Amino acid sequence: NAGVTQTPKFQVLKTGQSMTLQCAQDMNHEYMSWYRQDPGMGLRLIHYSVGAGITDQGEVPNGYNVSRSTTEDFPLRLLSAAPSQTSVYFCASSRSSQGASRETQYFGPGTRLLVL
Amino acid sequence: DAKTTQPPSMDCAEGRAANLPCNHSTISGNEYVYWYRQIHSQGPQYIIHGLKNNETNEMASLIITEDRKSSTLILPHATLRDTAVYYCIVRVIGTYKYIFGTGTRLKVLA
C-alpha cells in the first residue's frame, strides 16, 4: 500500500491564481480530511468527508472547496489564492468515523504552498 | 472537545524513558485521549489512544490518571529518531474533529 499520497510536494502561486491539491489513499478508507499547518502551530481542519459524495466544513473552510467523487480521491481547491493561505497542507484518512481504533488517522507527506 | 495543556519542550537522554505529560482537566466521560507525533515537517503519525485504562503498544505506553484529568505518554527507551513534536488530543468518537494544539517538542540527546 502506498498509504496517503499528496501532490505536488511544493507549489508557488501568485495572488489570485487557483489550483488543486491532490490527495489519494489506497486503503479503502471512508473518512478523509484536509488540514493546514502554519509555522509553529498545530494542524487546523479545513474540510472533511465521511464518504464518496459527502463533504463538510471544518474550522477554517473559507477560500477552499472540496469534492469526493470516489473513495480514493479527495482534492482541495484554492479558488483565488491569497498570501494568508501560505501554509503546509496535510491530507489524512481513517477507516471510518465510528470507533476509537477505526478513527486513527493516517497522514500524507504534505504539500508546501507559498502564495506571493 | 476538551482542551489540553502540554509543556512546550522537553529533553531526554538517549536510551532513557521519555515521559510526556498532558493535562486535560475538562475531559468528559466519552472523550478519548489520542497521541500523535510529527517528525520534522512530515505528516503526523499515530502513536496510541485510550479512554480510561492504561494502554501499551509497540511504540509507547499511555498512563491515564484515575480521574482522567491528565495522562502521560511513555517512550520506554528513547532514541534520536524519537525527536519530534508530540500532540495530545482529546476527542469524542464520531465527531470527525481532531483539535491539534502546539504540542511538546521532544529532543532526544545523544
Q: Report the sheet-strand fraction of chain B.
A: over 45%
Mean of the pLDDT scores of chain A?
93
The spatial strand order of the largest sheet of chain B comes to: 1-9-8-3-4
Average pLDDT confidence of chain B is 92
What form of chain B results from the Cα inertia axes? globular
What summary fits the major beta sheet of chain A? 7 strands, mixed
Instruction: Provide the β-strand percentage band of chain A.
Output: over 45%
Cα-to-Cα separation, first versus last residue of chain B? 37 Å
Total number of strands of chain A: 11
Radius of gyration of chain A: 13 Å
Which range best describes the helical content of chain A: under 10%, 10-25%, 25-40%, 40-55%, 55-70% or over 70%?
A: under 10%
Contiguous runs where pLDDT drops below 50 for at least 5 residues of chain A: none
Number of helices of chain B: 0
Order of helices and strands of chain A: EEEEEEEEEEE
Low-confidence stretches of chain B: none
**Could you give the count of β-strands of chain B?**
9
Describe it.
The complex is a heterodimer of chains A (116) and B (110). With 116 residues, chain A is mainly β. Helix content of chain A is 0%, strand content 48%. In chain A, strands 2, 4, 5, 6, 9, 10 and 11 form a 7-stranded mixed sheet that branches. A 4-stranded antiparallel sheet of chain A has the order 1-3-8-7, with no helix packed on it. In chain A, strand 4 and strand 5 form a beta hairpin. Chain B has no helices and 9 strands. By secondary structure, chain B is mainly β. The radius of gyration of chain B is 13 Å and the shape is globular. The chains are: A mainly beta (116), B mainly beta (110).
